[in-house]
Write a structure and sequence with these properties.
This protein is of the alpha/beta class and 426 residues long. It contains 14 helices and 11 strands.
Amino acid sequence: MIPDYCVPDLAKTGMSTGLLAALALGMLMLGAFLIIRKKRAGVAMMLLVAVVGAMAYAPVQSYASTAKKCPQGYHYDAAKEKKADADKPQQQPDASNTGISRPVTDESWMTPKTTFTMKADGTTGDIASGEDIINWDVAKKTLRAYMNASKDGIADKNDSPYIRDVTAIASAAGDEVAKMCSAAKTAGKKPAAVFDSDDTTLWTYDMEDGAMNFAFTPTKQQAWFDAHEMPATPGMVDAVKKIHDAGCQIIGLTGRNSKQQSYTVANLEHAGYVDADGKPLFTNEYFFTKFTKDDPMPEYLVNQGRCDMEKKKCTTVQFKAGTRQHIQEDLGYTIIGNFGDQWSDLQGGQAEKWVKLPNATYYLPSPNLDADWEARDKAAGMAPAESTYVVASDGSSGARPGVKDSDIPNMDIVKSTLRHYYSAHK
């Protein structure tokens, strides 16, 4: 195939090189004759021969000086090459960081990314590009679609992907734990089931989104506690009643502090956690809250020796696993089921079965009891080091059929990742 920039030789001057050469030779002979005869016309004729010779030679010289090669009978034409280049699609710099230049009409690389992998501690933000981090607004839209929540952060209380998700888990776990409770009772044991409060038995979403816009502060939380009563977590009233009726003692174990105990127990009663006679299923006697800095550390935690005695502090796992150990070893119960929405509600064992309820709103990690328990809990699938989320930019992935809380980017993890990316403080 002959390149566009190669044109036939006849196109160089409008006449063949041979014809120009013959014409120049004739004029040269005539000019010489006239000069011999001392005619001025002879000098003019010789000058004209030089011009014609240049016309015949110039295209050949131009062709010879270029690096472009053309077949015999053709020569290089720069104007033709420039036109061919102009007709090609224009290229643009690589804005997509792929190392590939693209035509200006190609905007496929502008499609928002939909798959993200993030570590639970947020450290992905230390190494990732901005495109590798879920956009805050996209995460919020996705969670609100999952909760079927309004733009002002109030969740639908009748139906949502979350309600279907948590209700299915609560129903299945309630049936299983109830059977285990009945079997343990028959075997002469003292069976019990332990329940966390926030987002395990009481539903906090409207406070987290509507009142706080996912920016938690104890002051805002306390104002919500003082002014409102939280509804029951969907599906959990039936599960707790079923487990109670099967013979298990119902026990509350929460990270809420001792000063918040009385109205938390009252809230649970008003939310529907009562038996067939209307008596509360959660009572102060069997409700464990975390001690404050003004309270003495419970003796059982002191004796276990895991907490920081100098600072008088226990991690969440130390407090909750230690309390479950106390319930079994000191109070004589066998904990059949342990229910929580955070991995830190469940780590450290001391229960025959653990049940993780959905929570894509916040994440409360805690160091485990020790390396041995950390290995055991990791093997059981608790607290994965990282998670992969597939999200649509309009948030609609939060409402797709069969969606689970593990498919929803947790807002605390997104927040932590963004703060690492920007090196921002809390």
